Amino acid sequence: MKLKTSILAGVCLACMVLGSNAAKATECGTKDPITIAEMTWLSAGTLAYVTKEILAEGYGCNVEIVPGDTVPTASSMLAKGEPDIAPELWVSTVKSTWDQMLAKGTVYKAGDIFASGGQEGWWIPDYIAEAHPEIRSVSDLKDNWQVFEDASNPGKGRFYACPPGWGCEIITNNLVKALGLEATYEVYPTGSGANLKAMIARQVSRKKPFIGWYWGPTEVIGKYKLKVLEMPAYDQAKFTCLTDAKCEKPELTGWAVGEVAVAATTSLKDKAPAVAEFLSKMQVPNIEISEVLAWGDDNKASPEEVATYFFKNYEPIWTKWVPADVASKVKAAL
């Protein structure tokens, strides 16, 4: 009798363990490894580790971070259906491949990772914006060139050029023509993306004027508190001409809002609906993610460390993405 009772107890214990594991697997939806692309810039790397932590600790998924970059990741998702998730895929950069993925049906857009999309434009520091409320849009620059005058070239404002070879270079040069700024502004060469970043740092640290092109969300926007100047709504025909170095009559238009997707495989959506539900809600405000990236840049932190900082300091954002019990598990793991 004792032997029978012991056997039954052992069977029940095994059932409990198996049941617990089954519940964990059901919570994630799959026991298969879920691969997440970690791309080479800070925001994408950070978001990869944010995704990993939530899936691994919150949902009990088997998660693997894999190296990636915009073009190779998009190509791999199209050809192989791998990786399963790209938390920050710049669709506008790989539009042709993205259209093929959607047509093939193996990848879908779970959501837009940045609340305001990817932003390109002309930016000024916050202290310039506060001291000169009359400068709100790019159209205000012509009459206020003195604000951006540099002592090395008196009589002209200094506009910091887009780095040579970048797509924004031709666009910016044409916008200068469209706005009639050639007579009152010097388009000052920056040489490279690193040089442009260093020039912004130098000007802001000295509380000197800066006007130039940049993009966001990035650590530069958050760290140096840059404000984007208003531009008219995107006009496709006008913008197409702006991208042409031989554009005969450049006209003013704004950049299109960059489409930056949380991309995922449809197979993951089918086998892990709870994960798909989380991905559909995953979105960060541009200002806040720029602040997070600025902290990372200041502290020379790894993407994983920046992700931890985000979890600890921006709880009201990420806890909206997941059920309360999942959020509790992530917090406990921190």
UniProtKB/TrEMBL annotation:
<dbReference type="GO" id="GO:0022857">
    <property type="term" value="F:transmembrane transporter activity"/>
</dbReference>
<dbReference type="Pfam" id="PF04069">
    <property type="entry name" value="OpuAC"/>
</dbReference>
<dbReference type="InterPro" id="IPR007210">
    <property type="entry name" value="ABC_Gly_betaine_transp_sub-bd"/>
</dbReference>
<feature type="domain" description="ABC-type glycine betaine transport system substrate-binding">
    <location>
        <begin position="32"/>
        <end position="312"/>
    </location>
</feature>
<keyword id="KW-0732">Signal</keyword>
<feature type="signal peptide">
    <location>
        <begin position="1"/>
        <end position="25"/>
    </location>
</feature>
<dbReference type="GO" id="GO:0043190">
    <property type="term" value="C:ATP-binding cassette (ABC) transporter complex"/>
</dbReference>
<protein>
    <recommendedName>
        <fullName>ABC-type glycine betaine transport system substrate-binding domain-containing protein</fullName>
    </recommendedName>
</protein>
